């Protein structure tokens, strides 16, 4: 504006042709040559108003009156600051709960961002739920199947060790689409299996003495040969000799009644002994040879049929004429339990029977 720039100036001189008290609230405007401009400025509201000597001053007079009335009005209404700056009074109980924040209508970071303790507690709860889920899977898949079969006390179990160890290791194989926690869990479980399992040649020989897993498909040819040699050494160690040398050996292919079939695919929750052993054997038995070989070679190359309803000891009893020395070894070796669970159960039961309070007469 020209007034602020110093090009114009104001003066309190009122025009002689228009006297009035309202001019005390108005300033006339003139330029540097003392020539009055057709404008005046109100000292109350600082507003620039148009004015010409030729025109009447009623509008100027009315403006000054209105400004004076506004200034003299009493301030009956309270400012909004009185409400925004007012401090709300709350009880100590409300301040300790989330309802105190709601009553003050005040935003809080505690409402928007959860506490670190709550985050940690939530993560821990999720981890515990996932751990319980994995334990449930292991309980159903491993404990109820593998543990119960390996600790059975009414049937042979030593020949099941290698097939089940192989099955458990297959379960622990890491897949590409597994979650990071599943991969870590499988690696820990596989490490635990490798550390806790103690395998000897007794397990190899007992697996070889079962007609389903006798081909030892998971072993190399060199390892198979070593197992056959270990079987011969055990026959000599136990002084198991073939007594009836004059009995005509019956060909191992006499009872071949069924062609070789591909084993049926197991259901996810069905893990019977036969299924686990068939998976270990891969159903790939070699053809028998017509050359005269020792009993172990003939047994290893023979195609044999095993009924699911027939136990391994019953099978060896039936085939004892064909394999007399191996049948004796099988009866001796397969009678060894795979774990100490059976003996511990018997010991516990016997201990309860022979305890002191049961020996007292009444």
Automatic annotation (TrEMBL):
Pfam families: Dimer_Tnp_hAT (PF05699)
Subcellular localization, as worded in the UniProt entry: Nucleus
Domain of life the protein comes from: Eukaryota
InterPro entries xrefs: HATC_C_dom, RNaseH-like_sf, ZnF_BED_domain_contain
Entry's Gene Ontology molecular function annotations: protein dimerization activity; zinc ion binding
Entry annotated with the keyword Zinc: yes
Primary location recorded for the protein, binned into one broad class: nucleus
UniProt domain HAT C-terminal dimerisation: residue ranges: 295-361
Keywords of the record: Metal-binding, Nucleus, Zinc, Zinc-finger
GO CC term (a single one): nucleus
PANTHER family on file: ZINC FINGER BED DOMAIN-CONTAINING PROTEIN 39, ZINC FINGER BED DOMAIN-CONTAINING PROTEIN 4
Record-given protein name: HAT C-terminal dimerisation domain-containing protein
Species in which this protein is naturally found: Rotaria socialis
């Amino acid at each position: 504006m020209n007034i602020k720039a110093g090009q114009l100036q104001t003066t309190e001189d009122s025009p002689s042709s228009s006297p009035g008290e309202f001019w005390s609230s108005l300033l006339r405007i003139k330029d540097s040559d003392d020539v009055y401009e057709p404008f005046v400025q109100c000292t109350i509201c600082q507003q620039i108003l148009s004015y010409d000597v030729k025109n009447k001053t009623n509008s100027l007079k009315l403006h000054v009156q209105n400004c004076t009335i506004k200034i003299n009005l009493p301030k009956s209404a309270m400012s909004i600051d009185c409400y925004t700056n007012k401090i709300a009074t709350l009880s100590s109980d409300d301040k300790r709960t989330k309802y105190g924040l709601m009553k003050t209508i005040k935003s809080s970071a505690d409402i928007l961002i959860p506490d670190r303790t709550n985050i940690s507690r939530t993560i821990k709860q999720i981890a515990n739920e996932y751990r319980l889920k994995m334990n449930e899977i292991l309980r159903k898949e491993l404990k109820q199947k593998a543990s119960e079969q390996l600790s059975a006390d009414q049937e042979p179990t030593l020949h099941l060790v290698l097939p089940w160890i192989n099955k458990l290791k297959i379960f622990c194989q890491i897949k590409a689409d597994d979650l990071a926690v599943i991969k870590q869990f499988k690696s820990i479980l596989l490490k635990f299996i490798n550390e806790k399992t103690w395998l000897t040649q007794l397990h190899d020989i007992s697996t070889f003495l079962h007609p389903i897993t006798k081909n030892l498909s998971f072993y190399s040819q060199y390892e198979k040969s070593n197992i056959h040699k270990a079987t011969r050494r055990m026959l000599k160690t136990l002084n198991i000799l073939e007594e009836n040398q004059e009995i005509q050996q019956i060909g191992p292919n006499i009872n071949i009644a069924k062609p070789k079939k591909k084993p049926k695919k197991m259901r996810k929750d069905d893990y019977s002994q036969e299924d686990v052993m068939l998976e270990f054997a891969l159903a790939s038995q070699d053809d028998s040879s017509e050359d005269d070989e020792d009993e172990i070679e003939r047994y290893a190359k023979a195609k044999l049929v095993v009924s699911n309803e027939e136990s391994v000891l019953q099978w060896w009893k039936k085939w004892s004429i064909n394999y007399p020395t191996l049948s004796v070894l099988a009866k001796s070796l397969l009678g060894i339990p795979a774990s100490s669970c059976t003996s511990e159960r018997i010991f516990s039961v016997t201990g309860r029977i022979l305890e002191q309070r049961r020996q007292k007469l009444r």
